[in-house]
Amino acid sequence: MTANLNVTTVVGNPKRLSRTLTTAEALAAAIAAGLGTEPRAESVDLAELYLTGLEPPHGGFERLLGQIRSGDVLIVATPVYKGSYTGLLKLFLDQLPPKALEGTVTVPVTVAASREHRLLADLHLRPVLAELGAKTPVPSLTLVEGELPELDARLGAWTEAHLADLADALAFGRRPIGASA
Amino acid sequence: MTANLNVTTVVGNPKRLSRTLTTAEALAAAIAAGLGTEPRAESVDLAELYLTGLEPPHGGFERLLGQIRSGDVLIVATPVYKGSYTGLLKLFLDQLPPKALEGTVTVPVTVAASREHRLLADLHLRPVLAELGAKTPVPSLTLVEGELPELDARLGAWTEAHLADLADALAFGRRPIGASA
Amino acid sequence: MTANLNVTTVVGNPKRLSRTLTTAEALAAAIAAGLGTEPRAESVDLAELYLTGLEPPHGGFERLLGQIRSGDVLIVATPVYKGSYTGLLKLFLDQLPPKALEGTVTVPVTVAASREHRLLADLHLRPVLAELGAKTPVPSLTLVEGELPELDARLGAWTEAHLADLADALAFGRRPIGASA
Amino acid sequence: MTANLNVTTVVGNPKRLSRTLTTAEALAAAIAAGLGTEPRAESVDLAELYLTGLEPPHGGFERLLGQIRSGDVLIVATPVYKGSYTGLLKLFLDQLPPKALEGTVTVPVTVAASREHRLLADLHLRPVLAELGAKTPVPSLTLVEGELPELDARLGAWTEAHLADLADALAFGRRPIGASA
């Protein structure tokens, strides 16, 4: 447990205030509550960030990048569009500097309209996160829209299965390698 | 051969007037010259199309969609960013109606900075094009930046290998299935 | 139409006489009936081919390779195992010489236990076929086990949608590029 | 540090005693030496395991499965064949029970002949490992054959970058979630 766990959520749904956003924020809250005593969770709707154009680095972009770098956990959320993550999300990731997520513990969240598409955005997103240097130590939360009414149960199952591993990856109180146990 | 072969090129490089654009236009010209007697090739720089914002369907978007639908060949070009196609390209593809490319003969063009990334954008792009219903009957033109000085030779090798198959897929003068040969 | 259309089917299900085999053979028959007047379809169960060991090139392997090369259409069929095509199928593909399928018109068939896995084997298989030089001009037939009772309807829909494109790719009676139409 | 760190290496190169094997064993030794005081590393050449046939579960298979389950780290090594992991490796993974690698900390090693293929086996392998429930908390070791003469330097860079994260994932001495730090 740590007092100042910071969870940043980035949402790549072109529609503002989407169910992708509420789903990702619910996961952020569950992680923050599970691992931090005074959790702080902030979320950025990329549909807001790029509202006036797609030109690279501007104020909002730089603030978000700083927030990700100083935070503990990054949640990257996307609906499944055309069988993959959204272009809006990738537009943001494209504008990040090389290896911008080096060492950042990252958890993808994907929401698909159909079961056939459930795994697809995750399949394509993880290599992009790897290219950026992100750590993705636990499985993504991959949901189908029909499961959203039972979101609490899904979140419970996910945290039950993966919160301990996430805590390990965050390495709070990590002992130096080579130190005696 | 057909008199009115139309080739539309869509370029997903966030930088306007990129080498991705000139490469894709060179392929468009080679295809048009090889298969049509009065070739018409038009290209759209998505960096232009989304210059003032990324909001879905507007005039330029609708014109481009109409052009693609009435054309014969679509070239979809992207640099390799973060190990995949660009977010800008996917932003455009995301805004297309379901199955918008049904029956459209499509050829991807990718330009990578390193050999390690040469095949990656194509690997991730083709399933998205398939989801949109596009026909992709021939291999993509996948280039590394270091090869751009020898673009003519690369284009020559590609057309030599694939132009006949592309012509077959265009099915100019297709005989009905079941008709005697 | 052509009198001597040859369809070869290769089945990568480790269980002999599988539903993958019967599904693939049904597609082979539908293609042969749709495009050839005296169709010949042969199928090879890789579970038979590798029954006594997995050592590379032996008699059965060489016969199958010859059959593929002299044939018109290759059907490559696999169940979805662990989210991808089977190792048995890839074992066979690995043993093929480089570019062994150059110019071979190939149609993948995949059968998944769940809808989540429907698209996965195809997603991973097509790049391998591309590496081998295969032409894959039409979408794969991707089925879920629960759809097998309605196989005839699925085959009908597939042939209705894609047989003409397959015929174009086979280019029976192809006119030379540049000849007047 | 732990006294009894067990590293199991599974090698999917159809050629016995391959450079893939020696590379994977070198990584196993580096991990064992870095994290355990009395390291034990064992490796299984799948080309040996399947020497007399590919029929599922037999003595060697069961022993290997037991070894993986009782071990701490699993290294899964493959050359890049036809743009992906080998069929031999997948044949073994296909025969594992569902979720057989649940909780197993796994590190992929891939060796490619060309730079174009460097990332491909890893890209396709990680989703299969995820389907089996494996934990893959650190990046794979992806090598090109031309780098093998400088293997020590590559191993040094990999362990420098990732050994601490691997130790975290192994969670030696993990504190219960919710316990005070």
From TrEMBL, chains A, B, C, D:
Keywords: Flavoprotein, FMN, Oxidoreductase. One of its GO terms (molecular function) is oxidoreductase activity. Residues 6-139 form the NADPH-dependent FMN reductase-like domain. The keyword Oxidoreductase applies. The keyword Oxidoreductase applies. Pfam families: FMN_red (PF03358). PANTHER family: FMN REDUCTASE (NADPH). This is NAD(P)H-dependent oxidoreductase. It comes from Glycomyces paridis.
